[in-house]
Structure formats: structure tokens, C-alpha cells
Here is the input.
Amino acid sequence: MSHKPLTAWRCDKCGERVDEKNGWLEWEAGENYGPRNFKIVHNQKKCCFHDASKDRKDNHLRDYLGTDGRELLLTILYPGDFFVKNFTQGEWDSPDIPQFTEILRRLHVSYYEEARPYLSQAYSNYEMDGANEGTITSSSFCERIFSKYKDSDDVLV
Ligand SMILES: [Zn+2]
Here is the structure.
């Protein structure tokens, strides 16, 4: 069976494979701060990070996949000037951008999730010499790194 990108992820808690059937996206967002602490986990209590948080937000992982999922993630990032001006009196708590971008990339850039654990090893082996931020986060680069470095016991292989 060949691996298909953007169909499975590693649970941030237990490390096992998680997919659109058993996956969950959770984060925290409070009255005075925007969304942060995003986690991809199994939809079960033992894998949740924010179970005890009063600011916990969560939903099925499948809701954030594909074109519809990208739309939903963009509303977390910023719902647009018109909405903010007319619906929130100009107030919007933006998410933590580095954390948000990491989740967006994991869910929407092919092979990024797959390559993540191997990036340090690839860097140590000079695979990134001459690379820039666009290279390192591209699907083609991530696919090459995953193909070259993946462990046979990786849950995404
Ligand atoms: Zn888990």
C-alpha cells in the first residue's frame, strides 16, 4: 500500500497514526487572547491536551481538511475586514501566527507532516544547503526528505 499525503497525521500526544475518522483538532482561545496551542490528537480523552482548560476549543479533524477545511482555518486566522468591522466592532484576537501556520501546513501541505520528524537529520546531513524558507516547506522537498529518511516503523509509512 502506498502512502497518500494529507490523509494521516501523528497524534501530538501518543504519536500513533490519526486520520479523518478518529482525528481531533484542539486549541485554546480566551477572552483576552486568540487561538493558540493547536494540537492534532485522537478523539479520546487520554490524548487531549486541553481537557481541563476553560478556554478549550475543538472539533473533528475532518472539518479542517480539503478546500472546506482551508476555508474554516482561514476564518480562525482572520475572517476579513468586512466581518470584523460589521460583526465584532473592529475587534479580533488573532491566533499565534507561528503555531497557526504550523497547523495549516501540517493539514494542507503534502508531505510536510511526513517530513517533520526528519528535518533535523536532513539538516545535519547538509540536505538544506542553499535552501530557503520556500524550499524547506515545499511539498517536493518534504516528499524527498520523507522518502529518503523515513523509518520503516514510522506510523505514516
Ligand atoms: Zn493519540
Observations:
- The chain has a mean pLDDT of 96.
- The radius of gyration is 17 Å.
